[in-house]
Write a structure and sequence with these properties.
GO molecular function, one term: oxidoreductase activity
Shape: globular
Structural class: alpha+beta
Strand order of the largest sheet: 4-5-9-8
Oligomer: single chain
Keywords: FAD, Flavoprotein, Oxidoreductase
InterPro entries: Acyl-CoA_DH_CS (IPR006089), Acyl-CoA_Oxase/DH_mid-dom (IPR006091), Acyl-CoA_Oxase/DH_mid-dom_sf (IPR046373), AcylCo_DH-like_C (IPR036250), AcylCo_DH/oxidase_C (IPR009075), AcylCoA_DH/ox_N_sf (IPR037069), AcylCoA_DH/oxidase_NM_dom_sf (IPR009100)
Protein name: Acyl-CoA dehydrogenase family protein
Radius of gyration: 22 Å
Number of strands: 9
Strand content: 5-15%
Family: Belongs to the acyl-CoA dehydrogenase family.
Order of helices and strands: HHHEEHHHHEEEEEEEHHHHH
Number of helices: 12
Distance between the termini: 32 Å
């Protein structure tokens, strides 16, 4: 049974992260948006304080236990995914661009954690526990010709003595330029389709691997979004995620495509939670202003209250969808459908709630104000980690495939 009441540990995580979002993130939010980057001195300060709030770092080993009817403790239950969505909602409330820029493995963490060998986990994840300097990881899947349909990636991996030669281009890579390493997806043979996909950890400074451009964006401006180029880039075989044995004699089993999809099942609820945080921040700011400025019991007050009530309904529904997806991941059940549903709904309502708030605020919400910024930020949550249309397709597959119908 799912409990809708946070445990004492979950509430503590929520409170600590909210304090950080309110006191450290929000004060620099507009400045970072205008600069197009998070100030280096702020990142250095956060790193020196030992604050690790990257979305992949919450409660990886945290477990909860509950007492049964006889007063005895039942089997402990993993809660890393639930802690991640609880905390990430608060980071999204603070500022999504800054949240995406916090030092840590980022989206590169889940595939290394779930598919890497023990040696690879130690090698690539241990660097984030050190105090100096701040470090980042990244995740490179999207290409100019393979966005929503990631099965069509064209980056190639040619086997050679001691490793692979990678050639290709990746786009829209969060923290791609500053990352110490990037999980790069490539194909060993395009004729194999998804079964030919492999995941490699490519380290910064590797010859033939470089950033060609940093994108200028409408929203999440402070977050770095890079284009990466691989030209005859040699990657040693020990950087093949999972190692050769992970792919041998398994047919169309755990290819790099499966690694990517498994990653999305874990990260889509996190993206959904951040979108919920954005919607909640805009809602709370607007509701506070409506209560103070609108004449009580007047027509405008009632119209505003109705619009805000609809927004609150959507926020609560999105949160419950997201919690369910995270809970299923924690107990080891397939959550692909729930991850797709919560991501689709949360991205949609973040835009709708922010737009509704701007309508109510009028000029007070524009010209560099926080709600206008959140509105610009919200759009990407309808796109990255798979567009809304892709999430609907995934949901439809889970609806029809039990009945023998392929979508």
């Amino acid at each position: 049974m799912i409990s809708f009441k946070l445990s004492s540990h979950q509430q503590q995580v929520k409170d600590v992260v909210h304090w950080f979002a309110e006191n450290e993130m929000r004060p620099i939010s507009l400045e970072a948006d205008q600069m197009g980057r998070v100030p280096d001195d702020w990142l250095q300060k956060i790193n020196q304080l030992g604050i690790q709030l990257n979305t992949s770092s919450f409660g990886e080993e945290q477990k909860s236990s509950q007492k049964n009817g006889n007063g005895k403790k039942e089997k402990s239950e993993r809660q890393a995914n639930r802690l991640a969505v609880i905390a990430t909602e608060e980071l999204g409330w603070g500022d999504p661009a800054i949240a995406l820029t916090l030092p840590g493995p980022g989206l590169g963490g889940p595939p290394v954690q779930s598919s890497g060998t023990p040696e690879q986990k130690e090698r690539f994840l241990s660097i984030f526990s050190k105090d100096e300097p701040p470090r980042w990881g990244a995740y490179a899947l999207t290409e100019p010709e393979a966005g929503s349909d990631v099965s069509g990636i064209r980056t190639t991996a040619q086997k050679t003595n001691g490793g692979y030669i990678l050639n290709g281009q990746k786009i829209f890579i969060t923290n791609g330029s500053r990352a110490s390493w990037v999980v790069v997806f490539a194909t060993i043979d395009r004729s194999l389709g998804r079964a030919g996909h492999r995941a490699f950890v490519v380290e910064k400074g590797t010859p033939g691997f470089r950033c060609t451009r940093l994108a200028e964006k409408m929203g999440i401006r402070a977050s770095e979004t890079a284009e990466l180029l691989l030209e005859d880039c040699f990657v040693p075989e020990e950087n093949l995620l999972g190692g050769e044995s992970y792919y041998e004699n398994r047919g169309s089993g755990p290819s790099g495509f499966r690694v990517a999809m498994k990653t999305f099942d874990n990260t889509r609820p996190i993206v959904a939670a951040m979108a919920i945080g954005i919607a909640r921040a805009a809602f709370e700011y607007t509701w506070d202003l409506v209560r103070k400025e609108y004449p009580k019991h007047g027509r405008l007050y009632h119209l505003a209250s109705e619009k805000l009530a609809r927004g609150q309904l959507e926020i609560e529904a999105a949160r419950l969808l997201t919690w369910e997806a995270a809970w299923k991941a924690d107990i080891g059940q397939s959550n692909a459908k729930e991850a797709a549903m919560c991501k689709a709904h949360s991205g949609k309502i973040a835009l709708e709630v922010c737009a509704g708030c701007l309508e109510l605020l009028g000029p007070a919400g524009l010209d560099g104000q926080i709600v206008e910024k959140f509105y610009r930020d919200a759009k990407i949550f309808d796109i990255f980690e798979g567009t809304n249309q892709v999430q609907h397709l995934i949901t439809a597959r889970h609806l029809y495939e039990p009945h023998g119908v392929r979508v």
